[in-house]
Amino acid sequence: xxxxxxxxxxxxxxxxxxxxxxxxxxxxxxxxxxxxxxxxxxxxxxxxxxxxxxxxxxxxxxxxxxxxxxxxxxxxxxxxxxxxxxxxxxxxxxxxxxxxxxxxxxxxxxxxxxxxxxxxxxxxxxxxxxxxxxxxxxxxxxxx
Length: 144
Fold this sequence. Notes:
The protein is mostly helical. It has helices at about 5-30, 35-40, 50-55, 60-70, 95-115, 120-135; strands spanning about 75-80, 85-90. A two-stranded antiparallel sheet has the order 1-2.
């Protein structure tokens, strides 16, 4: 039986979409739109808007709008980068950290509900497969 990469990609995207749709209400209670959540969740790993745009495959102009909204909601603040005074870096506020953590918990709970349909052995295998797919081809180490 042949497995088509495009079909697997599509199934994965559908799963992610179903999980996100199931969490929309909880995100709204936190004051977050879906894409704002993704930006908020990326701030610590990528504290500059251009880095967030690259990491999330979003247009820079869209990230600018999402960041502006997150700042207005008190979830993120801009600070002058001490290493380069011409740049501003983004920092999560305490409210932003709390909203991010609650949103991640909601996503994890919904994803766990889906995982309940999969045996523990298959979960371990799924984790191994996903890590292998994320590994750098040259080093075998996972890319972040």
